[in-house]
Design goal:
Layout (H helix, E strand, L loop, with lengths): L7 E4 L15 H14 L3 E5 L5 H13 L4 E7 L2 H11 L6 E7 L2 H8 L3 H16 L5 E6 L6 H13 L4 E6 L6 H14 L7 E6 L6 H10 L4 E4 L13 H10 L15 H11 L20 H9 L27 H10 L7 H17 L5 H14 L4 E9 L6 E9 L2 E9 L2 H12 L5 E9 L8 E9 L2 E9 L2 H22 L4 H7 L3
Parallel strand pairs: 1-2, 1-8, 2-3, 3-4, 4-5, 5-6, 6-7, 7-8
Antiparallel strand pairs: 9-10, 10-11, 12-13, 13-14
Bound molecules: 3-methyl-2-oxobutanoic acid and zinc ion.
3-methyl-2-oxobutanoic acid binds next to strand 5 and strand 6.
Length: 520
């Protein structure tokens, strides 16, 4: 297979992905994600929008310094100030990309930019030329591309290439296109833009109609050689094309799509987990990385699988790094075996402190629970990894529930080093627990989501609880696991609250928020 069949994978989990409500990531989380993305074989990592906030600037700068293989990239509008911020954040990297964009659809030009098509052409010329003087790796995007007049789009693309853009990205910003139409757009650009051979065509699809992956693959079949996507498909509104789905589609149906990517697919499951830990849980039936993606429930399917895996399996779980759940850990397992198990589960570079805390939690769990599965261990390690920066921690909880009496919770919290206690009643035990937290640490946030999942099977399974809260337009998500659903609920709420406190301390109102409000 020749290099003309290589499809470059451009990941925007930390930029477009972070624009999902509830998906904001801390610097530490972004660094952890960047390291695994680098190992995964992603070609270009869009690490943020440097002008948007000090946090984004800091993340792009930090990530630019640690990548060994992937090319770091930052986003900028068509303005010198934005491009300078990008350059400043990226310049420590030996190679970097500046990605600049402007809207080209009649709707956006008139109502969002208040510019004529001629003025937009001038802005393209000025911004791409300016960026090109700072790096030879410039990407240009026509925002709302799929609702742009095709003849005008050809003009903009020709101009951007003339000014030095090496990658031309066609976004389906509002997830409006369908595969047939997108194929036509990409083919027209290929056929009509005279200098198109001097650039790589890229596609960037949103999932509002659930077509992001299908549209991206249609774009590739029509000649695009870069796909912009995110792990777990997170992103603005209904999300972006999911990286794992694009890569596994190309790999599984290579007979129809004879392309190659540089992705080490065995690391996809680990990457998905790291991203979902920092953002929100993946739905059970999510393609490729969902908990049920390789589960066979129906007897007829199980029978077929036992006779020949190909009957109901189009790709193996091993090919995306899913290991068979095993039962080998129990209360007699020692620290060494535990460490080995963590290695097997993909937790290679965690600190001794976290191993120690997780091992302590594992021993307690093994005493309570007959079978400790891999997923149980993963859940408690994930829990330990986020705890060390928290200023409010649960010390004890007692809940009185059942029929008759109103449900009551007694709680002791460590709040900034001070031990505080209260007892509150509520409309159900969870309500009583959340009330205790509000009394011990008065705050005013809106609960947007409360979700419980069983980590493994059985009535003694650990429950993972996810909580999303909102304060002044900022959202955070907390997750926690425990065999006691109510303890997990308290810890998940506290986790979201601690993240909110960290966020509050870190960020003043930023241009980022303004940009988000503007829908960028
Ligand atoms: O969806 C979109 O148009 C974008 C651009 C900034 C590339 O994310
Ligand atoms: Zn986008």
């Amino acid at each position: 297979m020749s290099d003309k069949n290589k499809v470059f994978i451009f990941d925007t989990t930390m930029r477009d992905g972070e624009q999902s409500p509830g998906a904001s990531m801390s610097l530490e989380e972004k660094i952890q994600i960047a390291k695994i993305f680098d190992e995964l074989g992603i070609d270009i990592i869009e690490a943020g929008f440097p002008i948007a906030s000090p946090g984004d600037f800091e993340a792009v700068t930090a990530i630019s310094k640690i990548l060994k293989n992937s090319i770091p990239c930052g986003l900028s509008r068509a303005s010198k100030k934005d491009i300078d911020a990008c350059h400043e954040a990226l310049k420590a990297a030996p190679r970097f990309r500046i990605h600049t964009f402007i809207s080209t659809s009649p709707l956006h030009m008139k109502h969002k930019l208040n510019k004529t098509p001629e003025q937009v052409l001038d802005a393209i010329k000025e911004s791409v030329t300016y960026a090109r003087n700072l790096t030879d790796d410039v990407e240009w995007s026509c925002e709302d591309g799929t609702r742009t007049d095709i003849d005008y789009m050809c003009k903009t693309v020709e101009l951007a290439i003339k000014c030095g853009a090496k990658t031309i990205n066609i976004p389906d910003t509002v997830g409006y296109t369908v595969p047939l139409e997108f194929t036509k757009i990409i083919s027209t650009l290929k056929n009509k833009v005279p200098n198109i051979d001097k650039a790589i065509l890229s596609v960037h699809c949103h999932n509002d109609l659930g077509l992001a992956v299908a549209n991206s693959l249609a774009g590739v079949s029509a000649g695009a050689r870069q796909v912009e996507c995110t792990i777990n498909g997170i992103g603005e509104r209904a999300g972006n094309a999911a990286l794992e789905e694009i890569v596994m589609s190309i790999k599984t149906r290579n007979d129809l799509m004879p392309y190659k990517t540089g992705i080490k697919t065995e690391l996809l499951s680990k990457a998905s987990k790291v991203v979902s830990n920092a953002t929100f849980p993946v739905q059970f039936n999510k393609a490729v990385v969902g908990k049920n993606a390789f589960a066979h429930e129906a007897g007829i399917h199980q029978d077929g699988m036992l006779k020949n895996r190909n009957t109901y399996e189009i790709m193996t779980p091993e090919s995306v790094g899913v290991k068979k759940t095993s039962l080998v850990m129990g209360k007699h397992s020692g620290r060494h075996a535990f460490k080995e198990k963590l290695n097997d589960l993909g937790y290679a570079d965690i600190t001794d402190d976290i191993i120690q805390t997780s091992f302590g939690k594992f021993k307690i769990l093994a005493d309570k629970k007959k079978h400790v599965y891999d997923d149980d261990i993963a859940a408690l390690v994930d829990d330990s990894m986020v705890h060390d920066k928290y200023v409010i921690n649960l010390k004890s909880l007692k809940v009185y529930a059942g029929t008759g009496e109103p449900q009551r919770a007694e709680m002791t919290l460590d709040v900034y080093g001070e031990v505080k206690q209260t007892s509150e009643t509520g409309d159900g035990p969870v309500d009583a627990i959340f009330k205790c937290i509000k009394v011990l640490y008065p705050h005013d946030v809106k609960l947007q989501l409360y979700q419980v999942h069983a980590v493994t099977e059985g009535t003694d399974a650990q429950a993972t609880v996810s909580v999303r809260i909102e304060e002044n337009g900022k959202t955070t998500v907390g997750q926690a696991a425990d065999t006691d659903t109510l303890v997990a609920s308290a810890n998940a709420y506290l986790s979201a609250l601690n993240k909110m406190i960290i966020k509050r301390d870190k960020t003043a109102p930023t241009e980022h928020e303004t940009l988000k409000v503007k829908g960028i």
